[in-house]
Amino acid sequence: MKRADDFQERRKKLADLSEDQLEARFWELAEELVDPIVDLGYKNTSPSIERSILLRMGFSSVEAKSIVDNAIDRGLIGKGVGHIVYKLANKKNMGIRETGLLLVEGDAWNEVKPLFEGGAK
Fold first, then answer.
1. Residue 69 contacts by C-beta under 8 Å, 6 or more apart in sequence?
2. Which of 29, 31, 82, 116 is the most buried (most CB within 10 A)?
3. What's the mean pLDDT when you consider all of the chain?
4. Is the distance from CB of 82 to CB of 57 less than 8 angstroms?
């Protein structure tokens, strides 16, 4: 089975676009593809997914479990545990690992919840 070559026909709607317009169209289509995936990430997570993210951020499985368990206990898992570590690290002007280890020790959790109050910032 051979596919009909319809490139010239499909190209007509793009032929008159400038380079900037083509680039804008590319990003528009890319967003259409990625938005549902990002939406799934915001709405669906689990402890294993969150631990997996922390493992990729350089934490051991024991450290990751501790951080995730603490986030669950505080009702913050939906914020994304890697996001929690990242946001707190930025606030404290510290490295990611150093900040995560503070959370493993139980320190700094009182600083986390205010970072997520009031919606997206």
1. 47
2. 82
3. 89
4. yes
Which of these, 38, 37, 97, 22, lies nearest to 63 by C-alpha position? Answer: 97
pLDDT for 82 = 95
What's the rounded Cα separation, in Å, for the pair 97 and 94? 8
pLDDT of res. 121: 42
Q: For the chain, what's the residue count?
A: 121
Q: Taken in order 94, 97, 102, 108, is the CA torsion positive or negative?
A: positive
- pLDDT above 60: residue 120: no
Q: Of 36, 114, 37, whose CA–CA distance to 76 is shortest?
A: 114
Residue 112 backbone zone (phi > 0: left; psi -120 to 50: alpha; other: beta): alpha
Distance (Å, rounded) from C-alpha 45 to C-alpha 39? 11
Residue owning tokens 């317009």: 21
Half-sphere exposure of 89 (CA within 13 A, CB side): 15
